[in-house]
Amino acid sequence: MNYEFSDEENRFRESVAEFCKRYIEPRWVEIDEKGHIPLDLIKKLGDQGLFAIPVPEKYGGMGGNMTLAAIAVEEIAYHDPAVAVAVYTLLQNGWPLALSIFGSEAAKQEVLPKVASGDAFFGIASTEPQGGSDVAGIKTVAKRSGSKWIINGEKTYISGVREISELPEGGGYFLVAKTENTQWGHKNITDFVLLPKWHGKMSEKVKPTIYDEIGRHGISTGGFKIEDFEVDDDFKIGEVNNGFYYVMEGFNIARVLVAAATIGSARWALDRGAEWIRERKLFQGKPISSFQGVNFKFAELYAELEAAKYFVYKAAWMMDNTYLTSTPKFKPRDLDVPVALAKMKGPETATKIYEEVLKWFGAYGYTKESNVYRGWLGTFSYTIGAEGSQNIMRYIIAREIIGKEFVSHTG
Ligand SMILES: Cc1cc2nc3c(=O)[nH]c(=O)nc-3n(C[C@H](O)[C@H](O)[C@H](O)COP(=O)(O)OP(=O)(O)OC[C@H]3O[C@@H](n4cnc5c(N)ncnc54)[C@H](O)[C@@H]3O)c2cc1C
């Protein structure tokens, strides 16, 4: 086994860190405070090649891999611990890769170069009002009409809704819909590229709303109603009625990067915590780090963060050896457990680290001046469930390890 990053990976990490120190670190608090990632920063991220890292160069990507994408997202989250910029970046790597694997040539050529350059957004629209965990229970429906599909339905808690309306080109989603009927089940699901705004023009057939969230304010979360939106057959993703499997693979890709974002933010918090406990002196000038009640906890949290990192980079490496090689070592299903481990461990470790670091900061931690709370609230979005809830990760691990016939998720 090789536990080292290559020289190329280390150099890439250094170059991303340099970029972040210059363009993100000075602005992350303002981004969280104002609830907005400036469009010039999105463009800079695109120009720097930080979107579509694992996407082939012929579609405007870097032709890199998921390990590099995870490094980029981890570093960005270290410099924007409230994670909005990291989430934006992870979505612009994960879902473009999923489209490059499953989409038609026409859709890839049309959408991916604009996402890579930062002119358009491409995310995921799966969740609906009746519950995000139950993808087989979605009700949005696509009906075929000649060479087109007519889509009707509603999506909720979707990242990037406002950004699509603001970006010069626009953008859209990897949309999950029922084909022909809305009966519960996974064999009547098809995925589409839905572009509510494209070439700078917003469609009136998609009606958005924006939610007011408690954290990661820089990137919007919203919903939208879809009324008779027409999609060309070319923008159907993969085969009809196979969409459940493609979106599950897409979730696996995105979840690795979600976990990378949470460990980057958690590393920032633990570094700030270490500085604080060395400097804060009590009981006749002793640093609070000298008390075992503090340093033992530090050691435990450090161990958890190292474990979470291991899960992230093992899953990314497996993914590279599944999708991004001419000689795959693994099948997509082999990724389910390693990815669920990373997505389960990353956000929960971040939450634990933030809660302890806030306590080390004492009353100062409870003020807005310390800024630590921004990372706590930002990473907590992934403990709640963005890109799949934590219980669903537990279900996947239990199902695969104990055995499908012994583990039910429906009662
Ligand atoms: C900040 C944010 C951004 C998001 N962005 C997107 C996005 O871009 N695109 C998108 O499609 N969705 C997005 N989501 C939605 C996200 O995917 C859902 O929140 C998630 O899938 C859970 O769905 P839900 O919120 O409807 O909760 P529910 O599915 O209603 O679940 C409620 C609770 O029940 C638990 N639960 C559900 N089923 C089981 C089971 N079988 N066993 C045990 N426990 C179970 C869950 O773990 C959860 O705790 C976002 C969510 C957030 C918070």
Structural overview:
By secondary structure, the protein is an alpha+beta fold. The protein has three domains: 7-120, Butyryl-Coa Dehydrogenase, subunit A, domain 1 (Orthogonal Bundle); 122-237, Butyryl-CoA Dehydrogenase, subunit A, domain 2; 243-406, Butyryl-CoA Dehydrogenase, subunit A, domain 3 (Up-down Bundle), CATH 1.20.140. Helices cover 50% and strands 17% of the residues. Strands 1, 2, 3, 4, 5, 6, 7, 8 and 9 form a nine-stranded mixed beta sheet that branches. Strands 10-11 form a two-stranded antiparallel ribbon. Helix 5 runs antiparallel to helix 6. The longest helix has 37 residues, at 243-279. It is globular. The chain starts with 6 loop residues before the first helix and ends in a 9-residue tail after the last helix. The model has no long low-confidence stretch (mean pLDDT 97). The structure holds flavin-adenine dinucleotide. The site of flavin-adenine dinucleotide (FAD) has 23 residues, from strand 1, strand 3, helix 11 and helix 12.
Bound molecules: flavin-adenine dinucleotide
Q: What Rg do the Cα atoms give? A: 21 Å
Distance linking N and C termini: 40 Å
Number of strands: 11
What general form does the structure show?
Answer: globular
